[in-house]
Design a protein that fits this description.
Elements (H helix, E strand, L loop, with lengths): L3 H30 L4 H38 L8 H39 L2 H7 L4 H39 L4 H10 L3 H27 L4 H36 L1
Length: 259
Amino acid sequence: MSGARPARSRVAGALLDAAAAAAFWPRAAGATLRGPPLVDTVLLTLRLVVTSVPVVFAVTFFSGAMLTVQAAASLAPFGGGALAGIAVGFGGIREVFPLLAAASVAARSGAEIASQLATMRVTKQIEALEVMGLDPLRLLVGPRIVAAVVGTPVCVLVGCGAGMLGAQAIGAWQLGLDRGAMWSNLWSGIVAADLVVGALKGLVLGFLLGAVSAREGLVAGAGARGVGSATNRAVIRALVVVSCASLALSSAIYGRLAG
């Protein structure tokens, strides 16, 4: 029984922490709506896009290539290897590439958001703002949330394009599929609405990863260890939240089509 108590305590602690994290999201949204500093917001948005786009491009490019290899190998026994582009186009644009793009932003820029705010917490900069009567959420969290909300859809669109290029490259150059047919199959089932939905998903996922990362930075423990732990938690929790939210959004948007 003694071993059961610590397990129950850990579960209860995890649930309380999850509730506290979810309660922070409305505060983060309020800080964003109160009008964060314009210059900081623009600079942070540009930094997020510039630093995240290369990571997003690399991850989605190779993911598109791997999806094509697997799709072609799976369809080849049925004589449909040349139709791999259709499966990759549908699954990639609608789900895989937006999710990987948001996950890449969470890993790259979410970690940076958490480490920056955690460092400010450890060095008492946030407390100094509060003593001066300033709102740390509006000044520090707001610009970073806006940067994530604006920058993530851009990264999602870049990821969709990079994933399709990766699929085209591996299909035409390694698998020997006809280039024109491959490119046509990739885009045959995709409509403009799918790209719009991907960008809108990027808005939601950007807010969530920004809010999760900011909250972990604000509650960081003392010292360099606290900064490192906050950054690690931010990446892990942002990835989990982004994955769950992506599934929920896909089910709400496309789930009715499967019924």
